[in-house]
Design goal:
Blueprint lengths: L2 H22 L3 H9 L5 E5 L5 H6 L5 E6 L2 H10 L5 E5 L12 E7 L8 H13 L1 E10 L4 H11 L12 H10 L4 E11 L20 H8 L8 E10 L1
Parallel strand pairs: 1-2, 1-4, 2-3, 4-5
Antiparallel strand pairs: 5-7, 6-7
Helix pairs in contact: 2-8
């Protein structure tokens, strides 16, 4: 089996094991994007896996497209959620089929972490910027969170899906600048962490009076966390 076929098989098997757990979780990134970028008209999720965040955004914005390179994952999502408002497509993040500046906003969450090679990430940045008119967003796992890295190292022993790369905010900004894309500004923001306890479903033993409002509250509270307790680095690039 070629390396490419082996990689495709790995991701098909991995998502088969994990996709339902992702689908039942709160669309944290979708909530955060809705709060951070109100009144957007079109959004693209790159390498979305479960595409739960772009599916949520389809309920609040005019056009939302979720993509992933794994054909079996996309077929599963189409059958699981036959919703015409949320388009899901098989796409290669290095060579997207969309026209230049096709979307006002594009995002990927946990995609860069799969690539140890900076050159691959630079190519991803350039391709994402190509299809984006205004806002380009990238979320990656935070190298300043030692507890998170320890947890992932432990899980890696039984599940290679957790064997990922971590980034500091400075790493992310350096890569964006090195890609040579035209931009007006780069903002490095905090996403995920202890605040996400608000998303915990209430039970008779563990009440959560703020659960119904978590999607509005949590995204606004991330900024008050320390970096060492923040799960991911969210890089927001305003393109020229």
């Amino acid at each position: 089996m070629s390396n490419l076929l082996a990689e495709e098989q790995f991701w098909s098997d991995a998502w088969k094991r994990h996709v339902e757990n992702y689908l039942v979780a709160a669309p944290r990134t979708g909530y955060w994007l809705e709060t951070r970028f109100p009144q957007q008209r079109s959004v693209l999720e790159i390498a979305g896996g479960s595409c739960r965040d772009s599916r949520y955004l389809a309920s609040v914005w005019d056009r939302s497209v979720g993509t992933d390179f794994d054909e079996k994952t996309i077929l599963y999502l189409k059958n699981r959620f036959p919703d015409a408002r949320h388009e899901v497509r098989r796409e290669d993040g290095f060579a997207l089929s969309f026209d230049d500046k096709a979307f006002e906003l594009s995002f990927s969450n946990g995609f860069w972490v799969l690539f140890p090679d900076d050159e691959a990430i630079l190519n991803l940045i350039r391709e994402q910027a190509r299809v984006t008119r205004k806002w380009m967003v990238v979320l990656v796992h935070n190298d300043l969170n030692e507890g998170l890295k320890t947890t992932f190292a432990r899980h890696t022993q039984t599940d290679p899906l957790y064997d990922i790369r971590f980034f500091t905010p400075e790493n992310v900004e350096t890569l964006i600048r090195a890609a040579g894309i035209p931009f007006r500004s780069i903002s490095l923001e905090k996403f995920g962490g202890r605040v996400d306890a608000l998303y915990r479903r209430p039970t008779t033993l563990v009440p959560n009076l703020l659960y119904s409002s978590a999607g509005r509250i949590a995204p606004r509270l991330y900024r008050y966390q320390s970096w060492k307790h923040t799960e991911r680095v969210a890089c927001v690039v305003e393109l020229q």
